[in-house]
């Protein structure tokens, strides 16, 4: 089953020294059931915070997340999460890592092993159930993490830069595997990355975030046919459009840092500086 999600005026302020930090400011977003949505944005723009709020691990200071028809108010059993770090339990073998969530739910040993074995097959790792995580490559460990996230049959799959630590070839292979799993299971997916190519390759929708405070700078709906071809003109066009927004967002950031570093004065409207090539 898949559930849509709606973020309504989502705001989050971290309290603390030296001053409170507004990590997210008024994020509005709607992702349909079964949709594959990607979020790209510079480091520190609040992507992880956003995912943790959607997962119910962090309570937002303002606004709401609606999953299906219910407001998220605590950790969700209907949500599966995959992190950048492989985060497998090193003392458990692969099968028991995948079965961990089922164990917490009191599913019997035989049943949870049966389901875990099915999921290992889904991610192309049948035969590796008895291995320990350290015996697997990074790409294989991340496939185990995906299988584990799917084990409790979540309505929504959240992935936080899951392929960020992998080399390009492995990353491309896992992207295709994730798409195949998505197509087979029909899950709603919210996928965070700072890699534009990855977002455009995977997403039905690409949301570009800006930082300070974290907010939505632009949203792209991608109707490119699948499987996507990175050499296709439309793919390249979409890539350049997303990159354009992201570069604008990041250059605003640079200008702000530059002016802040000088001390004594700062630009009122950093964007007014114009393109760097004009040397105003
Ligand atoms: N627990 C926390 N307490 C205080 N500040 C935090 C905490 N977690 C994240 N932040 C800050 O919130 C901002 C957004 O962080 P994060 O969501 O991790 O961004 P991203 O995942 O896009 O890199 C950053 O400035 C970060 O330093
Ligand atoms: Mg992050």
Approximate strand percentage: 15-25%
Q: Please indicate the count of domains.
A: 1
Q: What does the overall shape look like?
A: globular
Query: Unreliable stretches, pLDDT < 50, 5 or more residues?
Result: 264-280
E-strand count:
10
Q: How are the strands of the largest sheet arranged?
A: 6-7-8-3-9-10
For the largest beta-sheet, the strand count, sense and barrel status come to: 6 strands, mixed
The hetero molecules present are: adenosine-5'-diphosphate, magnesium ion
Would you tell me the structural class of the helices and strands?
alpha/beta
Q: How large is the count of helical segments?
A: 8
The helix/strand order is EEEHEEEHHHHEHEHEEH
CATH topology: Rossmann fold
Radius of gyration: 20 Å
Describe the structure.
This protein is of the alpha/beta class. It has one domain: Rossmann fold (3-Layer(aba) Sandwich), CATH 3.40.50. Helix content is 36%, strand content 22%. It contains 8 helices and 10 strands. The strands form 2 sheets. A 6-stranded mixed sheet has the order 6-7-8-3-9-10, sandwiched between helices. β9 (205-210) and β10 (215-221) form a beta hairpin. α7 (196-202) packs antiparallel against α8. It is globular. It starts with a strand and ends in an 18-residue tail after the last helix. Residues 264-280 have low confidence and may be disordered. Adenosine-5'-diphosphate (ADP) binds at residues 14, 16, 21, 23, 41, 43-49.
Keywords:
280 residues; alpha/beta; Rossmann fold; six-stranded mixed β-sheet; four-stranded antiparallel β-sheet; 10 strands; 22% strand; globular; binds adenosine-5'-diphosphate; binds magnesium ion
């Amino acid at each position: 089953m898949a559930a849509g999600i709606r973020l309504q005026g989502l705001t989050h302020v971290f309290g603390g020294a030296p001053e409170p930090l507004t990590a997210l400011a008024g994020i509005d977003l709607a992702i349909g059931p079964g949709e594959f949505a990607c979020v790209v944005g510079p480091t520190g723009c609040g992507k992880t915070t956003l995912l943790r709020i959607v997962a119910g691990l962090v309570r937002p200071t303002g606004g709401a997340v609606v999953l299906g028809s219910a407001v998220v108010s605590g950790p969700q059993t209907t949500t599966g999460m995959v992190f950048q770090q492989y985060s497998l339990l090193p003392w458990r073998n692969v099968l028991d890592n995948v079965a961990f969530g089922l164990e917490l739910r009191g599913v019997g040993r035989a049943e949870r092993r049966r389901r875990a074995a099915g999921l290992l097959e889904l991610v192309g790792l049948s035969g590796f159930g008895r291995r320990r995580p350290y015996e697997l490559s990074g790409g294989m460990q991340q496939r185990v993490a995906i299988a584990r996230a799917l084990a409790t049959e979540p309505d929504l799959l959240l992935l936080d830069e899951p392929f960020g630590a992998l080399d390009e070839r492995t990353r491309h292979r896992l992207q295709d595997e994730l798409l195949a799993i998505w197509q087979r299971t029909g899950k709603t997916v919210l996928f965070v990355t700072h890699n534009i190519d990855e977002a455009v390759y995977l997403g039905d929708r690409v949301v570009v975030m800006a930082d300070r405070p974290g907010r939505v700078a632009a949203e792209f709906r991608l109707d490119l046919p699948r499987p996507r071809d990175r050499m296709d003109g439309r793919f390249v066009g979409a890539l350049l459009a997303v990159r354009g927004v992201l570069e604008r967002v990041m250059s605003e950031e640079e200008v702000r840092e530059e002016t802040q570093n000088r001390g004594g004065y700062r630009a009122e409207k950093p964007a007014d500086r114009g393109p760097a090539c004009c040397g105003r």
